Structure formats: C-alpha cells, structure tokens
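New to this. Explain the following:
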Amino acid sequence: TTKRKSGRSDDPFDGEGGKSAKKSKKEKKEKKTREKRSDDESEDRSNHKSFPAAASGKTETPPTTTKKRAFRLRLKGIAPNTDKAQVAQFLSVSESCVRNVFHGEAIVMVDTEEAFQRCVEKDDEKLNGRFVKVTDETNGARSNLGRNFLTPGNNGENNAEVKRKTTTNEREGRDWTCEKCGGENFARRETCYKCAAGKYGEQRETPPVMKTSASINTAVIKKQSNAGDRMVAQGSEQEGYEVFVKYLPKNVDESDIADFFKRCGELKEEVNLLRDQTTGSSKGAGFLTFRNAESREKALAMDGERFLDRTVSVTVAKKSPFGTRGTTQALGTHTPAMLRETIDSLGIANDPNGIYIDGTFGRGGHARGILNALGKNGQLHAFDLDPEAITVGRALEKEDSRFHMHHSPFGSMFKVMREKDSKVKVSGVFLDLGISSPQFDDKSRGFRPEQDGPLDLRFDVTSGVSAYDFLLKVSRNDLRDIIFKYGETNDKLSAQRIADAIVLARDTNALPKTTKAFATLVANAKGAEYQAMHPAKMTFQALRIHLNEEFDEFRRGMEGAMKLLKENGKLGVLTWKHSECAILIEYFRKVEKVRTNAPIFEWLKTNHEKSVTKLLEKDDDDDDAWAAEMDDCKRPADIEMRTNSRSRSAILHVL
C-alpha cells in the first residue's frame, strides 16, 4: 500500500480518485509549458532591448548579427574511390568541412545557412558516376558539434562539454576513426595506432573555435584502415591496367562484359570472369585488363552505371601487401604446387644435364618447370595414364627434344627405363600424388560429388572398370572395408551404413549412375558430418583410390625410383593426404640409412662389433647396395597459398 495524497479516495475502486490523478498530471504538464514559454518571451525582449546613443541621447537598436549555427549532413551512396577533396568540390564547400569518407558515406559539417542549402540541393545528383543521397542530421548529432563549431547559444562562454553520442560504427563494432589525427583503426583497438589517443577521443574542457580554411593544415593523412588500403594499384605497360568489377548480372558471360566496357578502350587480355567451380556459373565479379591508364580511368568512371538489372561497382585492382598479383584458376587448368621448391630439392642446378623423371605428368606444370631448369643435354621422361595428359605430353614432345612421354603408370618406370637402357641411372624422380586439377574439374570423369557426371572415377578411362560397374559386383563386406580403409576415417559405423545403402539400392535396381545422385545416396546414409566438406567426399576418394590402385602404385613407384637413382640421386614426393605420408614414412623406415646415433646401433656396436663391421664392409663391396636419407619436409609458403589456394595441403618430401 502507498500513502494517498489529500483529495484522493482510499478506495482503489473509486473512479473519482483515478480521474483526480489524471487531472493533476495534466495540470503539471500545462504549468511547465507556460513557464517555458514565459522564459522564451523574456529572452526575446532582452535581445531587442534599446540602448542609449552616445551623443544624441536617442535610443537605437544594436546592429543585427548572423548567428553561426552548425549543420551536420550525411552523404550516402558514394563511390569507393571518392576522397574528401572530391566531396568538397561536389558540395562547393571547404575540404575541412568534410569530416570523414568511409564505407560509401561521408559526414559534412557547415556553419552557415547558405552552405547548408547548397549541400541539400545536391541531393540525388551524381558524384563519380553514382547518385548521392544527402540527409540532414543536425538535430540528431548536435551533441557532437561543440568540439569544433560554435553551436547556437554558445559563443565560447559555455565551456561545459556536451555528452558524446556513439556513432553507428562504434555501436555495430566496425572500424573507427580517431578524432585527434583522423587515422582509421580496427574495431578491436581501444587506442589509435598512430597517436595513441583513446577510442572515444580526448575530453577537452574548452571547445576550440572553428578554424578557417586558410589556417587548416592541408597535409593529407595516409589512410591505413585495412590490408586492402595498404595494397598498391596495379598498372604497367607490361602487365596492363586492371580493374575489378563486381555486382555483375549472373546471366552474362565474358563477351557481354567486354561489350559493355568496349567504349573505354582496348583490352590487353580476355575478361577474367570469376565462376563457380561446381556449376560453372558466374559469381557476379571479374577482372578487366586494359592496355593503357586512360582506358582504365574511363572504366572507373563507369562505376555505378546500370548493366542490365544491376548497378556495377568498378574499382582499381590491387597488388597484395606481399607484392604479388592475386590470381584465379580457370576451370580445366592446373597450377603446379611448390614448383620452385621442387626444382631446388631435386638439385637440378648441380646436375643440369642429368636424366630426370616426372612420374605424374598431368598437364605438364612441373615438367615444364624442370625443362626450363635443365641444360641442353638434360633429359626428362614423363609418365601418365590419362589420355588427355598423353595428348598434352605428345605435343610437348614435339616442341622439346629433351622431353619423352610414356603412356604407362609410374609404378612401371623401372621396367620402362631399363628396357631402353639396362644401365641407366637417373639424377632425380618427382611424384605428385593424387588427382590433378583438370581431372578434378572435369565432370565427365566423376571425381567431384558436387558435379553431375557419370560415376566413373578412373584415371585411364580406356582400361579397367568404372565405379558404377564395380559397385554392381562388389560384396557388402568388401565395400565396407574399402570405404573404411581408404576413406581416412575411424568411423566404422558410417562405412557400414554407406555400404548397406549402396547394396540395398543395387538390389532394388536403384543404384545411381551419376555422381550427384550417388553423392546424395551416400550423404543420406552417412548422416550428420562435423567437417566442412561434402559428406560423400571421402567415399568418392576411397573408391577412386581402390579402382586406380593408387597406394600400391605409389609403393611400386618409390621402389622403382630408388633402384634407378644414381648415388646421391633424389626422389621428391608431393603428398596431399595423411595416408600418403604414412605410406612414404613406412617405406622409408625399411630403406633408411643406418644412423650411428641410434640406440640399437650403439648396442650392436658394443656387443657385436665384429658382426657390425662385417655387415658394413659387405654393403661397401656391393655396387647394388643402397640406403636412403630424408630431408626435412617442406610446405607451401604463405604467398603461394594466397595465389594458389589448392596448394595448402601439399607437403614435399625428399629422399
């Protein structure tokens, strides 16, 4: 219960008490309004008070002065390449009035009604090819104005700091601008990286008087907001002048884009349209490279223009902070991983006229790199099973007499090379395991669960059986073991479920013949997956490894390579999966050179010195005796992973 005021009924159900309370509130509100109106009228009378004249004794009104008032405006829809000077020129104001340009917006502060009207009249006009929206935020941002402007009713006498309002960027956790030096800072920073000022600025007791445009230091502070801003623009006669275009219509192709920009000038290269690897459709962005800077400037002026149903964005393409140019890999092409590391590890510089073997030719990326490093008397033999790879190899064979292509698995290299020369010794062998990018991207080969093609999975489509034919005959238990063994998983139940689903579909004549339908069947059988990949990916891998005998071929290839290598010859192996690394290490343990610091060797030398000496002398007398040593493994550099993302899983081993 609460103490009732006089005049109110104590009965809570008394209607008169409720009405009396409402009437009292209304009277208080009206009283406050009358008091405020009275104060305003008295202030107006004091402002118009007459003063005695100096000589005549007459009263005269003081000359009227225009009060300075701060106006805050926000510009939206600004092109990305617009700076403060361009905004100031667009609004016909001083550059000092433009406080910030960020994320397609700008904040402008003016102190006269005339300047404010000029700015408002620019609403819906074009700036750098884009229509700009000008909005008035004067009332909503007045608490921020006391820092640099004389606000209404404040001639410098009132030094009380008005409580600062946070900006939208700060509330949403985005990057922020230092109020002291203008530096751009990441959202997580509490102090400016340039001047160490606090995130919300320094508290000042006396607001400074607004500076005139003549007294403002016009030195431009270099913006350092993010890695993109630190990149330098691409452009030279050699590499061309490139722009990045985004927000393209999804149904356009390279020719449509080239036609849209043809009025800008001649292109140095074909349009590089970014496409989805799985569907081949446009991602709505791409690169255009012009022959000269003038053409690029014309293209930049098209920023914000309409292209069919979209408004495109055109910006200057940048080099990364590491000095490299970003690349995209076109479908059906192959970018060799760790090419420089491979050539260096094989020691080609020390034996440029030796004989070398590329056991996995693919599309010849590593082979061409090796040929470039070879001397004029050097030789390179390549092996592959893919008919398309053989076609590329035959063409290279005609171009370079030092190159020889063999349509055979690399596991047969010892037999093939000794048939040509029974005493041949090679200086180096290179194996790039797994599947090449062109094979992976070709949906007719059936290697990707996301693409729709025949369920084949063979490297050599001219021999062996396809995955579909194999699944028609394989037993349930054998299929389960294949998925578990080669699918790099410890989940036996998932392997069993997938095998059961495939066998059930086969028994009901519902076994899919295409990759996409088969992947759906596997995914439904497997259930939830914690990894960020297609649930059927490892099943596709397991079937591919089994059908192509990849692991057995790898073991035969290593054995044949080590027998062919001359003394101090090197075998380089590029692995992509843990299972491939395990097979290599398992083989290396069997052929590893005796380590004199190994505990077992120390024990043998102490307890069986004569036997150890005799064994070592026997190996020295045998010309065919050999052992292997291993260098430290190498991984792709950061710069390579940025330009060729598919190399991130590669590991280079050298025996």
